[in-house]
Amino acid sequence: MKANELMLAEAFRKEAVSGFEKYLPRIVDCLELLSEEEIWWRPNEASNSAGNLVLHLCGNVRQWIISGLGGEPDTRERDKEFAERGPISRRLLIGRLKKTVEEACQTISRFPAEALSREFDIQGYRASGLVAIAHV
Question: Residue 77 class from Cβ within 10 Å (0-12 exposed, 13-18 middle, 19+ buried)?
């Protein structure tokens, strides 16, 4: 890669990690404002609870970045993210989210710049490393 391409790749990776680090505390703060019951509340059966959305976010980040780019096994069961009715405690949800984000940041930080343009098979799609990171 040319020097300017390497600089751009490094800037992209840093910005992706920065986004995770910026938004994680905001999500955690929102979860901490909710009671255990409110985390799993749904206005109707066709809607998702905040707890479901956290599980979905963890599943998506794990599948696209940690597994898709980092090579870890893909054990995602997407339907279960939305079928869950709780009670998974707020503490466990936050812990799962923090661990997922930490692993994703590590994966992105060590992801080779040259691999950003390489194609990966993730969730039945062909996507470049750059697209996979931007996807989440």
Answer: exposed
